[in-house]
Write a structure and sequence with these properties.
single chain; 200 residues; alpha+beta; 3-stranded antiparallel beta sheet; 4 helices; 9 strands
Length: 200
């Protein structure tokens, strides 16, 4: 689901850049890749002169993971499923261009794109097709993160790459159920109250 969500996001970002540049049909500017691999020539060539999207961390929203979900099923029964994952995806966009001015212009396009659209779903994404495998839907909400100088230093040190013009976003990804049933049970139709009277 992560690949599908990021691919959908990149497709719309590339459409936005092509429209802004007036270069419809041109090769994609934003690509999915690991910016830490710039020292590997066989990979660096594919990332050269591109906006590179790197997933740098995944975090689960533990507070939203409480119990199971019960839903009614045809015939009067009840089906139980696990709650969907609520994940925070930490997305690093690096403008990996040889010309510094071009890098800054591309980074500004990333910022204006996400300022204009912060919520991504299959429903609000033209041409998006839900993937096979039972995933019903997802929601990806994008927030810009403001890192301190120390945090930026730690991030690039962790990646083992030289720092470039970049911005990091938190994508709150909600996968709305793959509909895998854990168990089913019959619906309660009636019940009897058994008790003792007062003074009994």
């Amino acid at each position: 689901m992560i690949v599908e969500a990021l691919t959908l996001l990149l497709r719309q970002l590339n459409d936005y850049i092509a429209q802004a540049d007036g270069t419809a049909g041109a090769p994609a500017q934003a690509v999915l890749g690991n910016i830490a691999h710039l020292d590997r020539p066989e990979i660096a060539t594919d990332l050269d002169n591109h906006l590179v999207l790197t997933l740098v961390n995944i975090e689960e929203e533990r507070a939203l993971k409480n119990g199971r979900v019960a839903t009614a099923v045809p015939g009067g029964g009840v089906a139980y499923m696990n709650r969907p994952f609520h994940l925070n995806l930490f997305l690093l966009f690096t403008a990996n261009y040889r010309i510094y001015g071009t890098a800054l212009r591309r980074l500004a396009q990333v910022l204006t794109f996400f300022q204009g659209k912060q919520q991504f779903t299959f429903a609000n994404s033209p041409g998006a097709n839900p993937p096979q495998g039972g995933i019903v839907d997802f929601s990806l909400s994008i927030d810009l993160l403001s890192l301190s100088f120390e945090e930026v230093n730690h991030l690039w040190g962790f990646l083992g790459a030289r720092q470039g013009p970049s911005a990091i976003f938190r994508g709150r990804l909600v996968v709305v159920s793959d509909e895998r049933l854990l168990e089913t049970s019959a619906q309660i139709q009636d019940f009897d109250i058994v008790g003792r009277g007062i003074g009994a």
